[in-house]
Amino acid sequence: MTGQHSTDRTQQIVVTLSYLACLVGSMIGVGVFGGTRIASAAGGALAADATLLAPASAAFSVWTVVYAGLAGYTVLQWFPAPASADRQRSLRLPVAGTMLLNAAWILVVQAGWLWASVAVIGALLALLSRVFVILVRTRPAGMLERLLVDGSLGLYFGWVCVATAANIAAALTGSGFDGAGIDPDWWAVAVLVVVGGVGVVLAARSGGRIAVAAAIAWGLAWIAVARWDGAPQSAPTAVAAAAAAAVVLGVAATLRLRAATRTVSAIP
């Protein structure tokens, strides 16, 4: 018991320090410490008007919710419910890793290394996928954990799914990729179909987890807004993004409703 307690305490400290690093990274990313804002870093490659897959600036307000949720998670993991102790042990180090990768991504973008940022966000997505599997395979101990752990990490994962596509598009554009003879609109539509498909698969695998679906739909919806109202304009991209957002949310809501109906039906 003493050894396990020591391991838990070490993990809790690692998570807390990782969150602080993540928070400092986010402040650098918005220019609080004099760093270049992400939208202006790397020659503006990640700005809202840089590529067809860039969401409108308002989309990034989701990070406020994600960081607040991660703060709640960081506090909660110090006081795990007995029924959730093993779950928290499985989550702590992967979640800490995602927070460090998040901070690393900001610093890499600040340095202007777009392809390095693709590698970092790919690693972040892979680690969040691992977190997602743990969340799906285990059960939260109560509503607070469902909100601060499953909800926050679900939003985080869903948003990074969209951000990864946008990051790759920025790196390709920054490298001079011109579509290899295929109209950029149709490249964008194809990528959005893939992102929407990923959202549907995640909804199916998780029984319709709303947090993941909501974050993916949020990102897709703001891509639609950016391409409809802003430059570069692209009606096909806007329509595809809006449709993908609706499908992802619709599938998740349907699966969630079915699960709730089965639960009610099972009650004698």
What does this molecule look like?
It is a single chain. The chain is mainly α and 268 residues long. The chain has 8 helices and no strands. α1 runs parallel beside α3 and α6 runs antiparallel to α7. The radius of gyration is 19 Å and the shape is globular. The N and C termini lie far apart (41 Å). 43% of the residues are buried.
Class from helix and strand fractions: mainly alpha
General shape: globular
Number of DSSP helices? Answer: 8
Strand proportion: under 5%
First and last CA, distance: 41 Å
Report on the biggest sheet: none
Mean pLDDT: 93
> How are helices and strands ordered from N to C?
HHHHHHHH
Number of strands: 0
Low-pLDDT windows of residues: none
Radius of gyration: 19 Å
Task: Give the helices and strands, then pairings.
Blueprint: H1 2-29, H2 62-76, H3 85-110, H4 114-137, H5 143-174, H6 184-206, H7 210-229, H8 235-266
Helix pairs in contact: 1-2, 1-3, 2-5, 3-4, 4-5, 5-6, 5-7, 6-7, 6-8, 7-8
Structural descriptors:
268 residues; mainly alpha; 0% strand; globular
Concise overview:
The chain has 268 residues and is mostly helical. It is built from 8 helices and no strands.
